[in-house]
Design a protein that fits this description.
The protein is α/β, with parallel strands linked by helices and 460 residues long. The protein has helices at 4-21, 33-40, 51-62, 84-96, 107-124, 138-156, 161-164, 182-190, 209-217, 240-250, 305-312, 341-374, 398-411, 438-457, and strands at 131-135, 173-177, 197-199, 223-228, 253-257, 282-286, 298-302, 381-382, 390-394, 417-421, 424-430. The chain folds into two domains: 88-347, 3-Layer(aba) Sandwich (Aspartate Aminotransferase, domain 2); 353-457, Aspartate Aminotransferase, domain 1 (Alpha-Beta Complex).
Length: 460
């Protein structure tokens, strides 16, 4: 029989070894797909294997292909690390193995999600009675919220989705900013709502309120507006007050995609950026980004709890519902799922109100520090107002932008990705990790300085 305690102790040692190696290993692995397949692949064994041998072998074979996303030197996409308390709680979540679909499948998993709901609504300044669902990402969060939106706006038009389905239903028009995140489009596609109608955005990617008003005047019928807290390249925020006014005047549902930016509401220094977002009907935000909870973890909230539940709820003869409790499957697309609330609970409780604000404000300060340093390099153009934790910049040509970025990536000291902004190549640095400080920013600047100098010295 397997000695589970010994296995878990050894696994903890392997995990700690990895975390302790982050300071010295390249942020991005120096291996190939073929090499990884050779180390991880092979035929499935015919006979059982000792669990500790399996875990040891997995750790050794996977090591060469692990990205240092948990490191404070990782600036790619908008990926946070894992706070110690949230990592430990995530391990406990796996050990407890609760099915977070029904209260009866794990009472503590159900109750902790309601506690987190209270904390999050308080931190983000959202309605205290908003409903909550824990999903894999803001992609599925938007699917959930927009399903609720579809239910409500069609009901206002006299259509019962639950009874009549979608065949023959009035068309739901969806207005989005020209620079919205592509997951909004996919959520709409999955829900059968089709292609959204883009509204002009300004140079920072913010939806233009005047353009929205012009667009909404042409709308006749059920309408959803999708606004954004934190454009993925620039970190910019839509003008929520003006958008909320337009939505209220037209009776439209307002959804806010706040994958990382919505957390700005938890900082006294940053809160002004999201002023007016609390007037929306639904919100989504990731916990695995700026809150630094392990993947995968996100939150969807709805002010219209009835529409939220109506869009998601299910019943079956064998299910055991407790009307006095919170049955999680009534609020998310998943039937059975992981108890994601524990890790979010641990992150928030370990940080506290002041610790979360400090994390948010420090990473934004780091972003500004990087921006101030990067523009000192010849040929660099800063493309965004650094209002949050994102820095968008480029060199004087697409070719040189790509060349310098590759040089930085290959150095292994830090890592971030390229992007395209207004049809030109650019580089996006995201400061999202709880461990990032001045030392990591200085290292990133030194890496860019060296790569930029090397690119100029390379013969053309």
């Amino acid at each position: 029989m397997t000695d589970v305690r010994a296995l878990l102790r050894r696994t903890a040692d392997l995990a700690a070894d990895f975390l302790e190696s982050l300071e010295n290993r390249p942020v991005f692995p120096e291996t190939s797909v073929e090499e990884l397949r050779a180390s991880l692949g092979g035929p499935l064994p015919d006979d059982p294997n000792d669990p500790e041998t399996v875990v040891e072998g997995l750790a050794a074979a996977a090591d060469a292909g692990l990205v240092g996303t948990a490191s404070g030197r990782y600036f790619g996409f908008v990926i946070g690390g894992a706070l110690p308390a949230s990592l430990a709680a995530d391990w406990l979540t796996s050990a407890w193995d609760q099915n977070a679909g029904l209260y009866v499948g794990g009472p503590s998993a159900s109750v902790v999600e309601q506690v987190v709901r209270e904390w999050v609504c308080d931190l983000l300044g959202l309605p205290a009675d908003a409903s909550i669902g824990f999903v894999t990402s803001t992609q599925m969060g938007s699917v959930t919220a927009l399903a609720a939106a579809r239910y409500r706006v069609l009901e206002r038009a006299g259509w019962d989705v639950g009874r009549d389905g979608l065949a023959g239903a009035p068309r739901v028009r969806v207005l989005v900013g020209a620079k919205r995140h592509i997951t909004i489009d996919r959520a709409l596609r999955l829900l059968g709502l089709g292609t959204p109608e883009p509204v002009a955005a300004d140079s920072q990617g913010r939806m233009e309120a005047a353009a929205l008003r012009d667009a909404i005047r042409t709308v006749d019928g059920p309408t959803i507006i999708c606004a954004q807290a934190g454009e993925v390249n620039t970190g910019a925020f839509d003008p929520f007050e003006d958008i909320a006014d337009a939505a209220a005047e037209h009776g439209a549902w307002l959804h806010v995609d706040g994958a990382f930016g919505l957390w700005a509401a938890a900082s006294p220094r940053l809160r002004e950026l999201v002023r007016g977002a609390e007037r929306a009907d639904s919100w989504v935000t990731d916990a695995h980004k700026w809150l630094n909870v392990p993947y995968d973890s996100a939150i969807v909230l709805c002010a219209d709890t009835e529409a939220h539940r109506a869009a998601m709820t299910v019943t079956a003869s064998y299910l055991i519902h407790d009307d006095a409790a919170y049955d999680q499957m009534n609020w998310v697309p998943e039937f059975s799922r992981r108890a994601r609330g524990f890790a979010v609970y641990a992150a928030l409780r370990s940080l506290g109100r002041s610790g979360l604000a400090e994390l948010l404000e420090r990473t934004c300060t780091c972003a500004r520090r990087f921006a101030q340093g990067i523009v000192q390099l010849p040929g660099v153009e800063l493309l965004n107002d650094v209002v949050l934790n994102q820095v968008l910049f480029r060199f004087e040509s697409d070719d040189r932008t790509d060349e310098v970025l590759v040089g930085v990536q290959e150095s292994g000291d830090v890592w971030m990705a390229g992007t395209i902004w207004n049809d030109k190549r650019a580089i996006r640095l995201s400061v999202s990790n709880w461990q990032t400080g001045d030392e990591e920013i200085d290292l990133a600047l030194a890496s860019f300085r060296a790569a930029a100098e090397a690119s100029l010295a390379t013969p053309t």
